[in-house]
Each structure stands twice: as structure tokens, then as C-alpha cells.
Amino acid sequence: MERQAAFSRISIDSDKQQQLLLDSLSRTQYIVEQSQKAIQENSKLLDNYYGEGNLDGILSMYDNDIELLEPQTPTCRGIDALRLYYETMKKLRLLPQERCVTELHALSPFIVLERGKYKIQKSKKLFTEGR
């Protein structure tokens, strides 16, 4: 009986519940849109760093606890492993020359997946393109 009385004191009418839900969805949508905008801006910045071969700039785009998952490559855990990865890629001339983000998918307000196309120059005349 006590439990019902306590619960009924917090009762919210259905109009207010709907408004709270709509407000929450609106805030979530705003967070997703801002995240997507930040990703697009940072992607352009990353493109510039790739073009310049600026390893410090490239690494500044990642958290210290980064885990890079690249196809046919061992997982790079941590910023030091990532530095080694990019130094090796630069020596091999395998840094992307061109990136084009074609899709952004919000998996949650805090996780957004970026997809696109890339072009890597392997020699003066040989390029590799992929998605």
C-alpha cells in the first residue's frame, strides 16, 4: 500500500509523458546532428594531414586508447602502436591521397560510423582505390 501511494505521487499525465519523450528525442537528434557535423569537419582536417604527410596532425585526431581495425592488418592498440603504424605506412607511401566520406550512420548519440571511398598512391603511376 505504501509503495502504491509513493508511486502515485510521482504520476505524470500522458500529455506530459509525451512531451518529455519528444524533448528527449529532440535532444538526441541534436546530439547526432552535431556529431555528424564534427565528423565531417574533422574528416576534412584529416585529409589535409594525410596530404601533407603530417603524422603529428594525424595522430592528434585519435584518443590515446585508440584501437585501429584495418583489414589484413594486426589491431593497433594505443597511440604508440598507431604512431608506428602510420610511420610504416608513410615510409611505404601508403597514406591515403584522397578520401571521400559518402555515408555517416549514427549508431547512438556517441557512436557514428563513417564510410566512404579512398585512393592510395603506391608508386608514381600506381594507385589503389577502395571503399
C-alpha-based Rg, rounded: 22 Å
The chain-level structural class is alpha+beta
What is the domain total for the residues? 2
Low-confidence stretches: none
Helix content: 40-55%
How would you sum up the global shape? elongated
Strand order, largest beta sheet: 3-4-5
Mean pLDDT: 79
Number of strands: 5
In DSSP terms, counting alpha (H) and pi (I) runs of 4 or more, how many helices?
4
- Strand-residue proportion: 15-25%
Reading the helices and strands in chain order gives: HHHEEHEEE
Q: Give the terminus-to-terminus CA distance.
A: 62 Å
Instruction: Describe the main β-sheet briefly.
Output: 3 strands, antiparallel
List the helices and strands and how they pair.
Layout: H1 2-9, H2 14-52, H3 55-60, E1 67-68, E2 76-77, H4 79-91, E3 96-108, E4 111-121, E5 127-130
